[in-house]
Write a structure and sequence with these properties.
single chain; 253 residues; alpha/beta
């Protein structure tokens, strides 16, 4: 029986953890990359008899992770794969405030995790599986803030805008190949995660949009990580996945 391979970053909390839990199902094989590992995920995988590996990695040093991924993929038998999917989910928000007040190390870390890591991992994934005939997909988890400017969010907005645009370029690259991957940079909607808590706790003087984020929470307009994960994974299975390299989970089928 062939296996559907999933590689997921940022699987230690929030929507990433919820996606990992939902991907543990018969016929799947899952590799998670995050700062930490979860005994609960391992137990869930064992009970479902699903192969799971968890790598504790710092994606601010993505070159090491990308090289490790390439070596790991080279050891797999492509004939046993029904399909293969890379989900670049990891991301961080640098300190909330004007760019003029940014800490260099903090800003660099956010850009490395949010933009450099997805590019390097995508490059390794595509190169290592370039000879596979099984369908391949790359799903980049983007944000509405990659498409809408916001004060005090230059680092995060830039990382997500860069993700959107490199996905557009990648789609053009892959379209010219006989077995090119389908790729999409997908905005998952507004989710009640630690990132939202960070935004709601920002000093009002540093964050002009504070009230709007507090309002989303107070009005119950945030999706739970579980709900968001369900919608993202459902989008991944759509027949038109990759037809639009930059999309929103709320786009009609």
């Amino acid at each position: 029986m062939k296996t559907s391979l999933f590689i997921l970053t940022g699987a230690s909390r929030g929507m990433g953890l919820a996606m990992a839990e939902q991907l543990i199902r018969p016929g799947h094989r899952l590799l998670c990359m995050a700062r930490g590992t979860h005994a609960s995920l391992q137990a869930l995988a064992q009970s479902a008899d699903v192969p799971l590996e968890q790598w504790s990695v710092d994606l601010a040093h993505a070159r090491d992770a990308a090289e490790r991924l390439a070596s790991w993929l080279a050891q797999l038998d492509p004939g046993t794969m029904h399909n293969a999917t890379l989900i670049n989910n990891a991301g961080v928000i640098p300190r909330i405030g004007p760019l003029s007040d940014a800490d260099g190390a903090d800003l660099s870390h956010a850009l490395r995790v949010g933009l450099e890591a997805p590019m390097l991992l995508s490059a390794s994934f595509l190169k290592a599986t370039g000879h596979w005939t099984a369908p391949r997909r790359i799903l980049n988890i983007s944000s509405g803030l990659g498409r809408r400017a916001m004060a005090s969010q230059a680092g995060y907005c830039a990382a997500k805008a860069g993700m959107d645009h490199f996905t557009r370029c990648l789609a053009l690259d892959e379209a010219g190949k006989p077995h090119g991957a389908r790729v999409c940079s997908l905005a998952p909607g507004v989710i009640d995660t630690d990132m939202q808590v960070q935004l709601r706790a920002a000093p009002a003087a540093d964050f002009p949009d504070l009230a709007s984020f507090q309002g989303l929470h107070q009005q119950g307009l945030l999706s739970s990580p579980r709900q968001a994960a369900e919608r993202v994974l459902a989008y991944l299975q759509r027949q038109d996945f990759g037809q639009h390299p930059v999309a929103d989970v709320r786009d009609p089928a």
